[in-house]
Automatic annotation (TrEMBL):
UniProt-listed SUPFAM superfamilies: Acylphosphatase/BLUF domain-like (SSF54975)
Catalytic activity: an acyl phosphate + H2O = a carboxylate + phosphate + H(+)
Catalytic machinery residues: 18, 36
Origin species: Candidatus Wildermuthbacteria bacterium RIFCSPHIGHO2_02_FULL_47_17
Stated name of the protein: Acylphosphatase
Length: 89
């Protein structure tokens, strides 16, 4: 199991991006959270199997129909087991 933190840049607020991320994470069996940041980005912390996290990143790059992802910063971290579900913050 792994943990990844993502920071998504572009047109990602006000386009149901957090809902899309939450739904995608649950479909893949991931746990963690997603939130809007004050700088206009979306920040995500997700935990699960490495292959599922890689699929998750690819789906985050695409985003929902009205989103336009310009850049994703990612950092792999140690699995923490602190989450039970995936939540929108």
């Amino acid at each position: 199991m792994e943990r990844i933190t993502l920071k998504i840049y572009g047109k990602v607020q006000g386009v149901f991006f957090r809902h899309y991320v939450s739904q995608t994470a649950r479909e893949l069996g991931l746990v963690g959270w997603v939130k809007n940041d004050l700088d206009g980005t979306v920040v995500i912390a997700a935990e699960g199997a490495e292959d599922k996290l890689k699929k998750f990143i690819m789906r985050c790059r695409k985003g929902p129909p009205n989103a336009k992802v310009e850049k994703i910063e990612s950092a792999w971290q140690k699995y923490s087991e602190e989450f039970n579900d995936f939540e929108v913050r």
